Amino acid sequence: MTDTTSALTRRYQDELTVRQQQGLWRQSGDNAVAESWRNFAGNDYLGLAQDPRLVKKAQQHLERWGAGATASPVVSGFTAAHQSLCDQLCDWLGYPQAILFNSGFAANQALLFTLLGKDDALFQDKLNHASLIEAGLLSPATQRRFRHNDMAHLRQLLAKQIQPSASLIVSEGVFSMDGDVSPTESLAAIANQSGALWALDDAHGIGVLGQEGEGSISRGARPDILIVTFGKALGVAGAAVLASPTIIDYLRQFARHYVYSTAMPPAQAALIEDAMRLARTEHWRREILSAHAEQLAQGLQDWLETDSAFEPHSFSTHSLDKQPFPQLLATPSPVKPLIIGDLAALQQVNHALMKAHIRVGAIRPPTVPANTARLRISLSAQHQKTDITALIEALKPVLASDKACGVTA
């Protein structure tokens, strides 16, 4: 049977057609064209990915360590460069041990697949990353999802459990599509009261929150398990899990994503350590992010439906049902969602930005809830004031048009 006539291929073609008809078609961006564009779609929050010093360091590390690790970390792929990175992570974030993974997706999946058994219970925020939700669905544990940042709902779900052997609560430090933060102190208290372990994925908090960029732990509460990634604010790639020696040893022994995968290149590990050093010491990068956020909010306030979007608040997608759009959400992170609501209106706004050679993430369902299609404006310390001004000027006319401002959820 040929590929074009197999039942599986026909099913794929049908589902692809439906996705196109729904206006939800995804495609890779043309990075070659976008090099000369203003980029508000990435996660290079601190502007380190193109830092000339790190580029030079990368070349030096390649010359010293070579291109790859060539083996699993439990065979011969773990080097002094990997150990040094683990040591510096523990020093920075205050944990006794760390274990490295090739991506945040792999770290999250390894964590849930490895630590949970069939008699265990898993509690996840509904807006957790897809890597966590999928791992929860595929793990042997019973997964329960609590409403976004709703601690009362989490307590209710915990109270309904019939003596599970163990429980794990998982949330995020900064939520990638909304830019808001989790109530870490409440999560810590609930975990302590219930006897559950608490894990926090801080992919979008590390580097940008805290005096030295230590992320969400700077807000006071410290999770039992902390996941950090290196491909966003640190500008490189990879991830780490930090926890007690018992948990890290357990992952090292039983996490298949670690045991059966080639280790990250040692040159990469050394480069991450260099990026981490800059993130800790160059405080001006976080100051620039704050200035950019203020400029964006002030520049757009006259073209938005309500000024209340700029007041600090705990964002909930449920609250958007009664709000007029467009709406720029105030967040404590570099992620600034501009909620448009309707897919057609989102496409109109995004098209206007592309004509101005400005790239912004146009986020649609199912990545975000229905009727909350948005521009995910991602600020970077690499941006100049002129970049923020250009974004504001490109948005003004389209936000003022009836097609954009008349949209409701």
Provide a compact summary of the structure:
Its EC number is 2.3.1.47. The chain has 409 residues and is an alpha/beta fold.
The chain-level mean pLDDT equals 90
Approximately how much beta-strand content do the residues carry? 5-15%
SSE succession: HHEHHEHEHEHEHEEEHHHHEEHEEHH
Please give the number of β-strands: 12
Query: Number of helical runs?
Result: 15
Low-confidence stretches: 306-322, 405-409
What's the shape? globular
Q: How would you sum up the major sheet?
A: 7 strands, mixed
Tell me what the structure shows.
The protein is of the alpha/beta class and 409 residues long. The chain has helices spanning 7-21, 31-34, 52-65, 80-93, 104-115, 130-138, 151-159, 184-194, 245-254, 256-259, 266-281, 284-300, 343-355, 385-400, 402-405, and strands at 38-40, 97-101, 121-125, 142-146, 167-172, 197-201, 225-229, 239-243, 327-328, 335-341, 358-363, 373-378. The chain has a 7-stranded mixed sheet with strand order 2-8-7-6-5-3-4, sandwiched between helices. Strands 1-11-12-10-9 form a 5-stranded mixed sheet. Helix 6 links the parallel strand 3 and strand 4. Helix 3 (52-65) packs antiparallel against helix 11 (266-281) and helix 5 runs parallel beside helix 6. The longest helix has 17 residues, at 284-300. The model is unreliable at 306-322 and 405-409 (pLDDT under 50). Keywords: Biotin biosynthesis, Pyridoxal phosphate, Transferase. Homodimer. InterPro entries: Aminotrans_II_pyridoxalP_BS, Aminotransferase_I/II_large, AON_synthase_class-II, PyrdxlP-dep_Trfase, PyrdxlP-dep_Trfase_major, PyrdxlP-dep_Trfase_small.
